[in-house]
Amino acid sequence: QYDDVWKNDSVDAHFKADIPQKMLELFEQENVQTVLDLGSGNGTIAVDLAKQGKTVHALEISNEGIEKTKAQAQEAQVSVHILEQDMYQVLPFEDKSLDAVIAFQSLNHNILPKIEKLFAEITRILKHGGLFIVKAANFNSFDLKNLGDGLYEDSHGGIFCTLRFSDKQTYVPQDGPEKGLTHYAFLPEQLTEKIEALGYTQIYAEILQWHILAMFKMN
User: Fold this and answer.
1) Residue 14 sits in a domain of what CATH number?
2) CA 140 to CA 207: how far, in whole Å?
3) How far apart are CA 132 and CA 138, in angstroms?
4) What is the pLDDT of residues 146-191, one digit of tens each?
5) What angle do CA 71, 212, 32 make, to 5 degrees?
6) Which domain, by its residues, includes 29?
7) Does any domain span residue 97?
């Protein structure tokens, strides 16, 4: 189903976003060389980092996303190590082997227990002092209209979507490009608490229009 997501031109355009300047500053400050982009989608961020001389691993489950990543890398004449895999499986890296892991609007596509297991797996593969950068859905940004029977209508930027909630923060879109895909939206303080509990210190946080951008350093 993720292939259908990345065939959608509106989704593709949405993810062609600039890399946060603060992240680039941190990468420079911490001498980051090896980066894993979890749920790399169309490869925009992975390719941009490769253009800056980073060794980039792009992990993506969608064949459509992988093909777009290959095309972007070829056009930019850079190398990106592409891994076709579900991010919620064991990650194919040695313990303490990466300088940074980034996850932009990707890791919240599951139920909370699986996301928590992913947090632990990221912790396993990051070096001491490594960086974990995450951009996740912010539950506080939702403007929900109760339709009854567990259904809610939400509007983000004038785009309306019907959501079915199974608990307070777990939902499945009933229409749109991500129809049928499980999502989890974090509260900002909850995201911080869960990651810091694994031995990180939050060094930057920003509440965006619909997302939380948070940066953590392993102690």
Assistant:
1) 3.40.50.150
2) 10
3) 18
4) 998 889 998 765 667 889 998 889 999 998 778 888 999 999 999 9
5) 55
6) 2-139+185-218
7) yes
